[in-house]
Amino acid sequence: MTSPVAGITAEYNPLHVGHAGHIARARELCGARAVVAVLSSDFVQRGEPALLDKWTRAKMALACGCDLVLELPAVFSAHNAGVFSKAAVDTLAAAGVVTHISFGAENPERLTDNIIDILLNEPEPFKPLLKKHLASGLSFVEARARAADGLLPGAGALLAGSNNILALGYMMRIKEKKYPLRVLPLKREGGAYNSGELGGVASSAAIRAALARGEKESAFAQLPPPSRRILTEAMEEGRACAAHGRYWSVLRALLIRLEPEELARCAEISEGAEHRMIAAAREAKTFEEWTDACVSKRYPAGRVRRAALHALLALGHWTNRAAQRLGPPYIRPLAMNSAGRALLAEMKKTSRLPIVTTYGQAARVSRYAAEVARRELLACELWEGTIPNGSFGVEHKRKIIIC
């Protein structure tokens, strides 16, 4: 019988006490000999620069209970929940050593096969309902929730939870691909993913907001000691993106330079959104003000921010669709301890994807892999420009963190 290995998909932006508890609980539930985390790149699913670069967050993960940390490239990490969850599960499954996948959800007891089958197979009359709600101007997430509720009353409320949506995405991918992964859904405790409330077990969003307001002590109270130490060092070194002023300067310069037809060639930008994005850039004084000006029923804030990042990465429709169709082209380890090192040695025999450690190796896998690696490198360089003490070119010199 294969010894259990738990897989977790994470942003750890930053890694707080709830995350540390999840790692420990996942290990305990399946008796895992190791915990593997697939970690978002320097830009996260909300379409924003992460508070800390992926290497620093990988170090946090090791310090708080993970054994091996793998990269989720920016073309997948800064995308909608469907793309994000599929790529993360594909990476864990391709490793060939992960037996369980654990994730948080607002309502883990309601993540049943009924709702998974509706979303996966889109039976009648789901498709007509979805088309009707999309035609009314709703976002895809809201339209899908209402269509699902028409077939299974209560499904709409379930699909209103950010973590429920991701959890269902993981479970759908496992069922669709028939991956031999057992799921360990856990009740999410504390603030919701987007919650700004700083109390109890606060969300990463609330912690970041507190840091942006200068409430360092309140924010740090939500972090386990290793995270606190690592974040303190990063902030003292000027290597934390606590505000978006520098990022907005770069993005605004691009938006006011581009013609609408040029912007429309970038991934996830359509239906005339390019005109609104450019017009708002000429007026908005901050990234947040620009986002608010661009939001519509069809384009919620997350989609707006992700579209902007895709423009900065020069991610066109073709490459974006290829990424969604083909998934991750390689596995890249970021950090490991002794248990992770032993697991990586196993993966060299079991992995269904090439294991790479440098951008040069990734580029030699295939033309598509080279495109994914090129966007990842660009995302890291962009992130360096968002912090007080950015170091351009450093990403080329990065080596696996071994603790």
From TrEMBL:
Describe the function of this protein. Answer: Catalyzes the formation of N(4)-acetylcytidine (ac(4)C) at the wobble position of elongator tRNA(Met), using acetate and ATP as substrates. First activates an acetate ion to form acetyladenylate (Ac-AMP) and then transfers the acetyl group to tRNA to form ac(4)C34.
Which EC numbers characterise this protein's activity in its record?
6.3.4.-
Q: What is this protein called?
A: tRNA(Met) cytidine acetate ligase
The entry's ATP-binding residues are: 9-22, 104, 163, 188
Is RNA-binding a UniProt keyword of this protein?
Answer: yes
Q: Name the InterPro entries for this protein.
A: Rossmann-like_a/b/a_fold, tRNA(Met)_cyd_acetate_ligase
> Which processes are annotated in GO (biological process)?
tRNA modification
Task: Give the source species.
Answer: Synergistes jonesii
Record keyword Transcription regulation present:
no
Q: Which UniProt keywords apply?
A: ATP-binding, Cytoplasm, Ligase, Nucleotide-binding, RNA-binding, tRNA processing, tRNA-binding
This protein's major location comes to cytoplasm
What's an example GO cellular component term for this entry? cytoplasm
Q: What does the organism's lineage look like at the top?
A: Bacteria, Thermotogati, Synergistota, Synergistia, Synergistales
